[in-house]
Fold these 4 entries.
Entry 1:
Amino acid sequence: MTAQHWREPRELREPARAHRAAVDAVLSAFAEPGVVEREFVLPELGGGFAGRTAIGFHFVDHVVHAWDVAAALGVRLRPAEEVLVAALAVARRVPADAAGRGPGFAFAPALKVPEGAGPLAETLRLLGRKPRAWPGTGG
């Protein structure tokens, strides 16, 4: 996935400016030479991870939180299929140890994934979200 997937208009109001600054900082950090081999400490996930994995976790975080916002607004999230497939691949790699899931941790316990669930629904359930609890958001 390229940075073009994360572009937004430059003329933005205050909350969007803060978001843009955060996005620019992340894209700059992840664009540095050698970043995919460097270790990133992610205390909320219990340790250090190769840059490639840390970037993936950051990516899936964006997808899931986009769903959170859509769910809160009662609108449907419709990312491209390739985004959903990539997010699912990352969600499947998030440590699922029950001792590191729940209140006070980055993720709720993983939920059972029904047979035939689409990639967004599976991603959400693997990360402890209940997509059916939010009508109209897909899942």
Entry 2:
Amino acid sequence: MNRLCEGRVVIVTGAGRGIGREYALMLASHGAKVIVNDLGGARDGTGSDDSPADQVVAEIVAAGGEAAANGENVADFEGAKRMVQQAVDTFGDLHAVVNNAGILRDRMLANMDEAEWDAVIDVHLKGTYAPARHAAAFWRERSKAGEAVSGRIINTTSVSGIYGNIGQTNYGAAKAGIAAFTNIAALELARYGVTVNAIAPAALTRMTEDLGMGQASDEDKAAMDPKWIAPIVTWLVSEESAAISGRIFEASGRVLAVAEGWVRGPQVDPTDDPTAMGPLVETMLATARANSGMNGEPGGPPQSPTAPNSTGGR
């Protein structure tokens, strides 16, 4: 087998279960040395448990790979710094960070409390920023020292963020923010030899099993197996992906696609008269494409609060 990631040192956050576990196992099978990060918290982010990360490390080692466990909270700035340093101290380098950790606290906006908002924004948005920031600083220093850098950041966004999903203003806002973060970080870090991309996964995991996915057909469950998402992430971590940056890929057992970002639609000459605005807006909207639904198509259907969540989580 052609091992795409031979010798590359990779951090995968939220790697104790679900999608992150599949990432860690496939990366290791392709020769990567993996820091398996997982706080081991519940689906809503509460609590902690070292055993999920330890179990994945044990699986990798038993298969002949190299891995080490890490139990830091990705939203802890200093903890993220320690995680990056652990990779360097343990394996001598760092080549990629896969930001996958996440939680859910779904609620309709009128009922969502501040804690539910803060927790989701913290884990997803700050939990992407903190590891990426410390990795970026590491690669910048390597680049300034004249060393060749082949860095990768792979973030996790969601169709809930880039297209919109009912009941997830907190989660969707975080995931939309991660999409913007990916684009901007890609522009900033190109000079140092670092690419930044994101995945919008769809999978049946602990995060989604009680949101309707648990009653899916066997065919649907097979298509929503997390194993389908790991190949694109493994390839993005590899040297082969050096020319790809600032892109978002939807991935599941049903689709592999590139999401296209906001573009300027129909336009008219501006006016300083608010009473003239109505006809102008009507003119623009008459030829504008509708916002995409959860199927990624303009004017596509929204997802109801009780329908299966297709975001995958971690």
Entry 3:
Amino acid sequence: MTNCVLCKEELKPEEGQLIWRGDDCRVILVNDPDLPGFCRVIWNHHVVEMTDLTHSEREHLMSLVFAVEEAVRYVMHPDKINVAALGNMVPHIHWHVIPRYKDDAFFPGSVWSVRAQQAPTENVTARKALVQDLPVAIRSAIAALS
């Protein structure tokens, strides 16, 4: 689909960084200054719903989502992980893996909510420093699936 933002292969630096790419899926580290460590697991082909995938494709995709979650938990030490697949705005299968903290800008709401508080600068800065270790941790977690 030509107008789907997730079908395009190239990322602008302000959008994020490609961490891993396989035949069916890819993992992006989203460039979101409020949510360091926010990742997306994206199905490479334009497919709208999970039930459009075969059972084995679903299992493969979810194993990647869980590997990313595990790596994000290990590196970022969040209070909670949000795993979401909404697709309301972009009807292309993708999963969000988002480390959440009680002091993040959106807590206790979702990351798509209105800001609820000002996150302490020193905590955001420390979390941004942790992000540098995330690509290697994610690739290792995915490699362990084989």
Entry 4:
Amino acid sequence: MTGHKTPLRLLGGIALTGLLLTLPALAQDAAPAEAVVDAAIAVPQDVAFILNTLLLLIGGFLVFWMAAGFAMVEAGMVRSKNVSMQLLKNIALFAVASFAYYLIGYNLMYPLGNWSIGSDDGGGYLGAFSIAILEAVGITSDQADDISYAATSSDFFFQVMFCATAASIVSGTLAERIKLWPFLIFTLVLTAVIYPIAGSWKWGGGFLDTQFGFLDFAGSTIVHSVGGWAALAGAILLGARRGKFNADGTVNAMPGSSMPLATLGMFILWLGWYGFNGASQLAMGTVGDVADVGRIMANTNAGAIGGALAAMILTAVMYKKVDLTMVINGALAGLVSITAEPLTPGLGMATLIGGIGGIIVVFAVPMLDKLKIDDVVGAIPVHLLAGIWGTIAVVLTNSDATIGGQLISIAIIGVFVFVVSFVIWFILKATMGLRPSAEDEDLGMDLAEVGVEAYPEFK
């Protein structure tokens, strides 16, 4: 369509952003053109190796930047007396996750046929227990393990960022009422064992991949729901913040310290997601691969705007005012929702999938309050529930997915992560305790445990 839009047509376009129940036609967007799909015009293998490695490095940079996004969202959503604690937790969890993934997690998740339990050539249940080892310094093309893929170092660098992301999800849910050291011990177990085992069942060629045909392109379930299940188990055992819920079931609002910081964090996460999803193509050595990377990034953006618009419109209808925190989480839920399959949808369908993620957030946040589950930043609706939805939605656009395979895989990972996490949290609660004293919680974790206030002049 060419030419300028008339005001009437512009208004009509704006009205279409109400989309969420009126977009079935957009689900019929054309699949990728055959000319793009079949355009596997390959470069020489060593050049493909270089390009693939470059993609993983750039993707890793972007996913690393998501650590700043999580830190800013959490800093903005918690009260001012707990901001330094959240910043410290985000620095520390990244360090712990990176070390744990090197020590155990990477080879446990990607055993490369070396399964401890299960088939030697894949389809197993438990990978290898060994440290990550990088390729030799200055290798030549004939020394690379797989010259058509990428360097081991870049693959580890990219994958460890995903591991840290799963841990970041837990941090926000349990904010303001958990001590530092038990949280970091749980993070160690999550990133060394729980996340890598769950990930190996699909991405490491394990049984969910070989027996159930499970599809999860960039981790709506493997990363986001894993973090969400671990957070839910912790929130149940930890309990709510003091004063959050009244005896009569009413909820006391506890506004965050800075909506500018929370909004900044959302945009940082949004940017990082282009690497999270785009580089999960894992290759750009052909015309088809590069075109797919661009398609993935465009659909990732569409998922985010669908979630933001849905949350904005729905809160305006339900509460007569637009809730900024819901819009922030709506955008993030849209991103989580499209992560399981960002390649095969068209832009319209990607927007719809993200939009339903935004709707989930608006209804799930008050639902958790009714259940008296205190989730400070809304991570359970955003990462767990939208992650489940996004994984199911794969069947809408990818003919290789089956509803049975998706559902049973979601259930298996959910039961495994929740049960193991609950046991670890329970042991930590029984041995060293999870919560600070009531006096320390009222004082704030910045003074009680960190010793450095984020806003010392505002007392």
